[in-house]
Each structure stands twice: as structure tokens, then as C-alpha cells.
Design a protein that fits this description.
Blueprint: E1 2-8, H1 11-24, E2 30-36, H2 46-59, E3 64-70, H3 90-106, E4 118-119, H4 124-127, H5 131-136, H6 145-156, H7 172-179, H8 187-198, H9 200-206, H10 208-214
Parallel strand pairs: 1-2, 1-3, 3-4
């Protein structure tokens, strides 16, 4: 059996891995465990992340390691970040960051067991795979035509959910917080529930970078 640690950005991603992502894979083939850098995650400076991963790899020499970090607001000290202005495409940006991140970590140990994943633009991108499931997640949102209309406009403005973002104030989570306000969208409370109701297969159909992660046989055979 392959053992895989997923280093998560925060509690929202941790819940998603526990409740939705890990159960998607055959537990007899791969055992997936989310981990936070610290008790609640967040404040992911590159030095902090790097030290955490290197210690984990050193202490457990058989496991594989990946990440689930948002591209949005990623620490600018991540390897390659200073080159991103020259790369216009979001998919090329995250792949470039992943390569530089992987090269840096794997240079410290020879087993080549680290395969990072950076979500464009953030976890909430995945939720836009099915806006009907978004509004079903809380009784206060359900069957409100105005919510569906606002969410539909966002989805229709972009080729796919992973490309939803064009400024610091228009990330997917900001958009959900602006539209879903009675009650307010809460990442930890609603995120995994919405993703579970959408289903991993449906998310994979809409979000190609997420699908590529799921297809990484080094991690998920």
C-alpha cells in the first residue's frame, strides 16, 4: 500500500481531503492523510513549509508527499515566484511553481517522493464546478433565483472554474462571500459539503489541473 501525506493550506482543505478526496481512492491501494503546518495551517511562509516537509520526509522515509496550496496569495518567496510576471497563463504559472518547488525540496533527499500541487486560483475554484450544489449547501441559499443568476454569470465569463479570478478582490472565495451573505459563506463549514455533493468525478471533468493531480500515478496508483 502506498502512503501519501497531503500538506494542506488550512482547515478547509484538510476537511476536503478527509471527507471527500481520500475516500475517492481505494484505501487498500493508497492511504491518504492530510496534514497542516501547525495546528490550524495558514501563514504559509516558504521557509516554514520547506522545513515542515523536509522534517516529514526525513522522519518517514517510505511515504510520498504532496500539497494542496492555493496559488492565490501564495508567499512570494516560493521558488520561481519572481518569474511569474513573464508567464501570462495561469496553468503555466502553477506548473512552473510546482516544478521549482519540487526541484528545491527533492534536492535535499534522493528518494524523489515529493510531488507538489498548487490549486489555481484557490480551493473555492473547484466549487464552481456545479453552482446548483453551492446553493443547496445551506437552507438560507436554496431556491433563490438571484443567487443562481449571479453565480451563472461568473461561470459563463470563464473557460473553466480554475480560471475564475482577475484581481485580489475577485478570487472565488471573495465572490462566494459577496453573493452568499444570508447566511455568509464560511469556508470550513460549507466547503467540503459542497465539494462532496458535487463529487470528485464531476470536479475532474471541469478542472483540468485538479484532474492532472488525481491522475498522478506517483501519488495515487
Amino acid at each position: 500500500m502506498r502512503r501519501v501525506y497531503i500538506i494542506c493550506e488550512g482547515q478547509t482543505e484538510e476537511n476536503f481531503i478527509k471527507e471527500v478526496f481520500a475516500p475517492y481512492f481505494n484505501p487498500q491501494i493508497v492511504a491518504i492523510q492530510p496534514l497542516l503546518v501547525g495546528k490550524k495551517g495558514g501563514a504559509l511562509s516558504y521557509d516554514r513549509v520547506k522545513n515542515f516537509i523536509l522534517n516529514l520526509a526525513k522522519n518517514d522515509t517510505a511515504t510520498y508527499i504532496t500539497t494542496m496550496f492555493d496559488y492565490y496569495a501564495l508567499d512570494t518567496k516560493f521558488p520561481g515566484h519572481n518569474q511569474l510576471n513573464a508567464i501570462p497563463d495561469i496553468y503555466k504559472k502553477v506548473k512552473y511553481l510546482e516544478k521549482k518547488f519540487r526541484d528545491d525540496i527533492n534536492s535535499f533527499f534522493s528518494n524523489n517522493r515529493f510531488f507538489p500541487y498548487i490549486q489555481p486560483h484557490e480551493f473555492e475554484s473547484l466549487l464552481f464546478s456545479d453552482i446548483n450544489e453551492i446553493v443547496k449547501a445551506d437552507p438560507g441559499w436554496n431556491k433563490k433565483a438571484a443567487l443562481i443568476s449571479s453565480l451563472s454569470k461568473i461561470v459563463n465569463d470563464y473557460p473553466n472554474p480554475e480560471e475564475i479570478n482577475n484581481s485580489p478582490s475577485t478570487s472565488p472565495s471573495h465572490r462566494l462571500g459577496q453573493i452568499l451573505n444570508l447566511p455568509k459563506y464560511r469556508k470550513v463549514l460549507h466547503g467540503a459539503t459542497i465539494a462532496k455533493n458535487i463529487g470528485i468525478d464531476n470536479i475532474r471533468q471541469k478542472c483540468k489541473h485538479f484532474d492532472e493531480w488525481c491522475n498522478n500515478k506517483n501519488l495515487f496508483p
